[in-house]
Structures are given as structure tokens and as C-alpha cells.
């Protein structure tokens, strides 16, 4: 990993050494924070992440792109929303949750958190049938 891709933390004058955070860590934090919000169905991934998840390994950084610029950290989140929810409200909650998680876990503030809605997840017909049977 090149030196330009690592974010150095300023720890003051403790003299104990330096702390570096890789962008992949920020991707994982943002991915978990986004999926915690009610209304987010799943994160967008590619074919490779789908195959890996079927084999049993969870990819928490799926659907998140982190860019380290001179202005700060820019996070792009690509997610699918559940049908019937208010997209602007849920997207705002995703932004707030990611900002708060990054601040709590890394003491870093994101310059931008961009939420990209790439699809709507509808309920499966089988789930609707099961819910109907349970109500009776």
C-alpha cells in the first residue's frame, strides 16, 4: 500500500509513535453504519463480492467508496432502499450515522458523505404470503 493512501492521525506530543488508518477501515465503518439505518435494504456490490458472500465471508466495505483529498475525506455510499420508505429521510439518517460513526471511532470528520440510491428492494411474494398466514 502506498504512503499516499494512508491517513495519519495527529496524536499530539505523546512520543509513542504514530497511528495510521487505511481507507479500507473507513469503508468498513461507513458500510456498517449505513446498514444499521432502518430502511436500507442492502449495499451495492459487484459480482466478486456476491460470490465471496455466498461462500460465507461478509464484506462490510461493499458499496462504499472513500476518497482522501486535500479538502478531507469524501465518502460515497451506494445502497438499495426498502420499498415504501421516505428516501430523503433515510438518506439523511445514513449520512448522519456515517458521520457520527467516523467521529466516534476515528476522531475524523468527513468532508462529504454522498448517498447514491441505486435501487429499490421489493418484498418477495413468499414473504408476503407467510406474513398473511401469520396474521390469520
Please tell me about this protein's structure.
The model is unreliable at 46-53 (pLDDT under 50). The protein is built from four helices and six strands. It is an alpha+beta fold and 136 residues long. Strands 3, 4, 5 and 6 form a four-stranded mixed sheet that branches. Helix 1 crosses helix 3. A hairpin with a 4-residue loop joins strand 4 and strand 5 (73-82). The protein has one domain (3-8, 18-135): Alpha-Beta Plaits.
Which features characterize this protein?
136 residues; alpha+beta; Alpha-Beta Plaits; 4-stranded mixed sheet; two-stranded antiparallel ribbon; 4 helices; 6 strands; elongated
Kindly, what is the distance between the CA atoms of the first and last residues, rounded to a whole number of angstroms?
A: 58 Å
Which percent bin holds the helix content?
25-40%
Helix/strand/pairing class, anyone? alpha+beta
**Sequence of secondary-structure elements:** EEHEHEEHEH
Compute the number of strand runs.
6
CATH superfamily: Cation efflux protein, cytoplasmic domain
Q: Count the domains.
A: 1
Largest sheet: 4 strands, mixed
Task: Tell me the CATH architecture.
Answer: 2-Layer Sandwich
Per DSSP, the total helix count is 4
Mean of residue pLDDT values: 79
Question: What's this, in brief?
Answer:
This protein has 136 residues and is of the alpha+beta class. The protein is 38% helix and 27% strand.
Write the layout of secondary structure elements.
Layout: E1 7-9, E2 19-21, H1 23-35, E3 40-43, H2 47-54, E4 64-68, E5 73-82, H3 87-106, E6 110-121, H4 125-135
Parallel strand pairs: 5-6
Antiparallel strand pairs: 1-2, 3-5, 4-5
